[in-house]
Amino acid sequence: MQTKRFSLRWLAVAVAVAATTGCAAKAPVRVAAIASLPAEIVVREWPYWVDIPIQTTNADRVWRTVIDVVGEKSAIRIMDKEGGYLQTEWRSSDVRFGQYLTEERMTIRIKTSEGRIRMGIESRYRGTTNLTATLVNTAEAGWTAVYRELQQRLESGS
User: Fold this and answer.
1) Which residues, other chains included, contact 43 with Cβ-Cβ below 8 Å and sequence gap of 6+?
2) What stretches of the chain show up as alpha helix (H) in DSSP?
3) Which of these ranges, 6-10, 48-52, 133-137, has the smallest mean pLDDT?
4) pLDDT computed for residue 31 by the predictor
5) Which is deepest, 39, 64, 82, 114, by most CB within 10 Å?
């Protein structure tokens, strides 16, 4: 009897500790992959545009780099070198909103004369045409890897 009472006390203590320490399911804390942007971006208009500063003015180098980086991560849907425009196909992402997975698409506008690349990102629930209300800026989002690699490879003015 004493052992049973002792076990019940420990069970009660364990339940109390779990309740006070927040053992209940919580939304995951997201860590921003691009430090200058929040981890979750509320989007009012799609695509959501971000600028990637570049130092080089060599348009051919920028174009080749963009094609290399973007083409490695996604299938390219539309490509116009003269206009400095590129759009990808929708691509599955590991980003989750509750039980739903997402997919993303990127639109790139190269503006070497302005010292930047404009990247438009769209995010929708996988297998639907419904856009998400939030753009996730984490390592799981494919667009952040493209952003970082383009920034790294085009930061020098050579």
Assistant:
1) 123, 131, 132, 133, 134, 135
2) 2-20, 59-73, 142-153
3) 6-10
4) 83
5) 39
Looking at beta carbons, which pairs linking 137-141 to residues 24 or more positions away fall under 8 Å?
A: 137/30, 137/32, 137/33, 137/34, 137/37, 137/38, 137/39, 137/40, 137/41, 138/30, 138/31, 138/32, 138/33, 138/39, 138/95, 139/31, 139/33, 140/93, 140/94, 140/95, 141/33, 141/93, 141/95, 141/104
Evaluated on CA atoms 140, 141, 142, 146, the torsion sign reads negative
Nearest-CA neighbor of 117 among 57, 71, 43?
A: 57
Assess whether pLDDT exceeds 50 at residue 21.
no
pLDDT value for 27: 56
- Structural tokens at position 48: 């959501």
Q: Is 81 exposed, middle or buried (0-12, 13-18, 19+ CB in 10 A)?
A: middle
The share of the chain scoring above pLDDT 70, in percent, equals 80
Average pLDDT, integer, range 3-19: 49
What is the domain partition of the chain in residue ranges? Answer: 29-153
